Protein: Glycerol-3-phosphate dehydrogenase [NAD(P)+]
Organism: Amycolatopsis panacis
Amino acid sequence: MGAFAADVQRVTVLGAGSWGTAFAKVLGDAGRDVTMWARRESVAEEIRGQHTNSAYLPGARLPERVTATSDAAAALEGAQAVVLGVPSQSLRANLTGWRSLLPREAILVSLAKGVELGTLKRMSEVIAELAEVPPEEIVVVSGPNLAREIAVGQPAAAVVACAEHDRAQAVQRATSNQYFRPYTNTDVVGCELGGACKNVIALSCGMAAGMGLGANTMATLITRGLAEMARLGAKLGADPLTFAGMAGLGDLVATCSSPLSRNRTFGERLGRGETLAQAQAAAGGQVAEGVASCSSIRELAQRVGADMPITEAMHRVCHEGLDPRQAGAELLGRSPKHEWR
Ligand SMILES: NC(=O)c1ccc[n+]([C@@H]2O[C@H](COP(=O)([O-])OP(=O)(O)OC[C@H]3O[C@@H](n4cnc5c(N)ncnc54)[C@H](O)[C@@H]3O)[C@@H](O)[C@H]2O)c1
Ligand SMILES: O=P(O)(O)OC[C@H](O)CO
């Protein structure tokens, strides 16, 4: 029997945004006792008192066993698992404030999908560094999990990845319920790269949609996006099969095709001719992670020698002012090549 044969019962979710809140509901509906940390006391108070989070998930009702506080120390006391549900580029700053409060034996779980600007670290690497624990102990949850669908109990699957399989299984048990089906995986690198890269590909699909392009273009971007993320994964030691799973193809299809995706929506605005500033203003504080990750993933790809033309194009559109139409023309104008070599 593994070290985590016993069930995780008390879970803390740090971050009461869209996914942190929906994930707390998943845990609560799986019979776990959940305390959320919210940055704003008003959000914590609403979750405690009314079991709703109208700012992030209007229409969703949280189970009675989910409560919230804006006091991180109180939220973390006695936690057997700590779920990090803040955006990827702010994870380091947030965790720096929380690291001394983390219960020593708690399983650390990452929900964030991104690659850190500057360090080019995956989120589990950032967590391991700040929490001073081996990276093999960090658990990553990824997959086609649009928060608004999960929050109203629509069926979905996910992947729970950890190098130490018994930790992944403990989180799998803690999140399995009648509408959420998590699979385990030990390929953390592949799962994290899939989650980060699909945001960038969703930007490109949104741009195509904004330009009025149809299903063939979407399928092309999804398929070639999958090819380039798998190339990056191969250079970084990921299992190629992971990209055919929930954290790869699964999340690509959901994010690239759903109007609920912030990344796709952001890209759509750029494709319709809005500037980056206009698209950012329209997002109203919601983070499209692909806008930062296209730069960090591009840099990571350059470092390891992986060809990622769609990611390169998204970086140039988002940060160098390249017109989305010109980006499309340049992608189509690349020299002819074999599909895989
Ligand atoms: N929303 C989804 O459907 C979804 C699904 C799966 C994974 N994710 C991933 O989960 C992570 C969190 O996403 P989310 O959708 O919950 O984000 P969100 O913007 O809805 O919420 C972010 C939360 O983090 C808090 N926060 C703390 N410091 C912050 C800072 N400096 N800047 C911004 N917010 C800060 C906010 O107060 C809020 O509670 C992201 O990495 C995202 O890619 C999101
Ligand atoms: O809204 P997005 O684009 O950040 O995507 C949300 C999730 O990652 C989908 O799985």
